[in-house]
Amino acid sequence: MSSAAVLLDRSATMLPKRWRDHFELHATRTVLDVDGRQVSGPELDHLSGASASGLRSLGVGPGDRVLWQADANLSAIAAAIGILRMGAVLVPAATVQSDLERQTIIDDVDPAAIVAGGSSRALRTNAVSVDPAALGEGSQGVGTLDVTSPDDLALIVYTSGTTGQPKGVMHTHQSLAAQVDALTVAWGWSIDDRLLSALPLFHVHGLVVALFASLAVGSTLILESTFEPERFVTRASDARASMTFCVPTMLHRLAGGTRLDVLAGLRVIVSGSSALSVALSDLIAERTGMRVLERYGMTETLLSVSNPLEGERRPGTVGFALPGVVLDVPAYGSEAELRVSGPSTFSGYWNRPAATNEVLSDGWVATGDIVRVDADGYLVVCGRSKELIISGGLNVYPTEIEEVLCRMSGVADAAVVGRPSDEWGEVAVAYVILDSGAADLDAMKEDLAGLLSPYKRPREIIIVDELPRNALGKLQRHLL
Q1: Residue 394 CB: number of other CB atoms within 10 A?
Q2: What Å distances lie between residue 403 and 164, 394, 443, CA to CA?
Q3: Phi and psi of 197, rounded to 5°?
Q4: What average pLDDT does the structure give for the chain?
Q5: In sequence order, which residues have a C-beta less than 8 Å from that of residue 160 and are 6 or more positions away?
Q6: Phi, psi for 27 (deg, rounded to 5)
């Protein structure tokens, strides 16, 4: 039987049931180290079940969408797990989202409930809002849990597109289970591993790959709510971490400190979400004796390519297809857009059939990334056909920022491009044409702070008289 067939057979058991099985079978093991607490399986089982019960009491049922503020604390995590265990659909929202960004998602996905900590925001919605810490209070019985089917919708993760409008990427329970199976095989992930992660939970890297997979494997997740380099290496040592997942920005900051060698005690360091420079990879290898394992993925495909755990981890490449994944790549010596097929690919964009058809065809996802294959079969990502900026491992779409800028008083036109950054990979820079008069750049930046997440805000605003456009009026970004 092929590896793909084996994975598909194993993933017939959906993640909620796998979580519960590990909670019951390994009752004394710590599954989550968060908020200074060592959380056992039975405790997370109880808390997530109580959260599901609380949502049911508010009228939420299987298939309903629940907008979830992705806080890295125990009550929020229990709520997220409870949402999936009861068969509802989890819709993560970044904690740093502006009201405008969150309202756009609410208008599109029409959630039955909003689970968010802290003070409630003045958002236009008919959904009931509840603090995750209050969900389990006084719950009476949890009802039916962990009976999800492979084709049931599990997750909608919003990502902007080239039109600037956010699109909800839909993943089924089958997709999530298949991802866990592939990573378990590829990275030798076992119940004895201890994963240290400071990745945000609104992104599939932190949510699916770190949290969901760790719980499904039965290992321990050591979760940091923020990334502070000195604390991170201290936690790696004190918590006896064996694995960590990072983006290049995190590794750049770690390399700038004096204690990078502490990470030599890990079994594997995985990097992704944007390209890791060969120079940084070499520096980490020199100081830790360990070569970073680079991988490739996107919200629509989850992780699909990885350098090998055993054998050469080649800097500047992302390796080979994960088990169960099929790649459509160009012939050796040429470049072309990468297409991906496999059980962990998305099922479409929420309420966006036309956008879905542009990307998904006969099970193949057009990634928009231009790739080539080197002489030994390692995949190399050459660039992006889509006008995308990746800053700190997070996607920043120029058109989304441009639309916000052009709605601002006094702005006649705007264009946004990425500028290389040693720390962030890329940062956004805005070129703006004013209607008339002098520009108050400080006021513009202050207004943007209320409209865009921090990682999307332009690091520099440059006032220009005109923007380069062709005869048809199309912006020529490469000339900026």
Answers
A1: 23
A2: 7, 19, 17
A3: -140, 135
A4: 89
A5: 166, 167, 395, 397, 399, 400
A6: -65, -25
Q: Give the whole-angstrom CA distance, residue 291 versus residue 251.
A: 12
Distances, alpha carbon 111 to alpha carbons 85, 207, 343, in Å: 17, 19, 27
Q: Which residue do the tokens 């380069």 mark? A: 468
CA pair distance 400, 409, nearest whole angstrom? 17
Q: CA 178, CA 324: separation in Å to the nearest integer?
A: 8
CB count within 10 Å of CB 243 equals 24
Place of tokens 């056992």: 40
pLDDT digit string, tens, across residues 353-404: 999 999 999 999 999 988 999 989 999 988 777 677 889 988 787 878 888 8
Higher pLDDT, 306 or 118: 306
Residue 10: CA count within 13 A, CB half-sphere: 22
For residue 322, the 8-state DSSP code is P
DSSP code for 331: P
Identify each DSSP E strand in 161-266 by its residue range: 166-172, 194-197, 220-223, 243-246
| pTM attached to this predicted model | 0.85
> In whole angstroms, what separates CA 211 from the centre of its chain?
11
For 75, the 3-state DSSP assignment is helix
- Contact at 8 Å (CB) between 208 and 385? no
Helix or strand run (H / E) with residue 268: strand 268-271
Collect all residues with Cβ–Cβ distance below 8 Å to 107 and sequence separation of at least 6.
124
**β-bridge partners, 360:** 365
Measured between its terminal Cα atoms, the distance across the chain in Å is 53
H-helix segments, 26-172: 41-57, 74-85, 99-109
Buried-state track 76-100, b at ≥16 Cβ within 10 A, e below 16: bbbbbbbbbbbbbbbbbbbbebbee
CB 127 within 8 A of CB 67: yes
Counting beta carbons within 10 angstroms of the beta carbon of residue 283, is it exposed (0 to 12), middle (13 to 18) or buried (19 or more)?
Answer: middle
Range 30-46 average pLDDT: 94
